[in-house]
Amino acid sequence: MSSSPTDTVAVRDSPASLAAVGTLAYIGETLGHEAVGHGGACLLTGGRVTAVTPLWMHCTVQTSLLVLSGPLFNVVFGIACGAMVYARPRPGLLTLFLWLSCAFNLLVACGYLAVGGAVTFGDWAYLLAGLEPAGAWRASAVILGLLGYYAVLRGLGRLYLSFAGPFGSETLAIRTLWPGASAAVVACAAVFASGHADLASLALTLGCTLFVGWSLSRIYDFGLREQPMLAHPWIIGVKPGWIAAAVLASLAFVLLVGRTSSPG
């Protein structure tokens, strides 16, 4: 069986370059949520940040605004990245990085809402606590989060087409699973380095990052299969600058996250 041009290009894409943009997009999302969102609100309310990890941050004060600021950052920054791709949909690694940043931020925001409604972990679990009837509020959060996740995936598929053109399933898979896998590796390494690692934290970190990557690999099924193939598809080559930036950012992230102070 002969392969289509877009399926052939998948094996010629550089995994190192894909891992680099995935790593940078993940680090940007995590630091944005924890350090800029929560941390910024902490400082503005007169508190002091004592710890930052891939899963939580600790402030000497606790307010609903501080808790909400993390998810709010994800929504605002994700929309901003998507708007930049929409405004200038040009093939290139920078555009793919912006698309992945949009994806990571918006999917995390929606997924976090669904998880917060289902379990007693995370920002939304804190914000939903005390609301009555509790079951109705939590069920609403789960439904809204899942619907939002689905809607974001559909939008991301169309946004991808705007700059990358029609694609084959193998091409999409390698351009999403490699970034997701690299994000998972860096995330788990940071959890270990933070000194607050346990089985639940590692499972949540690994599961969330891999699920986001897997979800993105499935946008090919969201009404996009009817698109024609490209005669000269876009190829992602080796980009030393992006790879070096990702390595340096990963080292700094793993070595520094969670080292600000003890959480107590």
Strand count, sense and barrel status of the largest sheet are: 2 strands, antiparallel
Number of strands: 2
**Residues in helix, %:** over 70%
Order of secondary-structure elements: HHEEHHHHHHH
First-last Cα distance? 61 Å
Q: Strand percentage, roughly?
A: under 5%
Task: Characterize the overall form.
Answer: globular
In short:
By secondary structure, the chain is an all-alpha fold. 70% of the residues lie in helices and 3% in strands. The chain is built from nine helices and two strands; from the N terminus they run ααββααααααα.
Q: Can you give keywords for this protein?
A:
single chain; 264 residues; mainly alpha; 70% helix; globular; disordered N terminus
Description:
The protein has helices at residues 5-10, 15-44, 64-87, 93-118, 123-128, 134-164, 169-194, 199-217, 240-256; strands at residues 49-52, 57-59. With 264 residues, the chain is mainly alpha-helical. Strands 1-2 form a two-stranded antiparallel ribbon. Strand 1 (49-52) and strand 2 form a beta hairpin. The longest helix is centred in the middle third of the chain and has 31 residues, at 134-164.
What are the SSEs and their pairings?
Elements: H1 5-10, H2 15-44, E1 49-52, E2 57-59, H3 64-87, H4 93-118, H5 123-128, H6 134-164, H7 169-194, H8 199-217, H9 240-256
Antiparallel strand pairs: 1-2
Helix pairs in contact: 2-3, 2-4, 2-7, 2-9, 3-4, 4-6, 7-8, 7-9
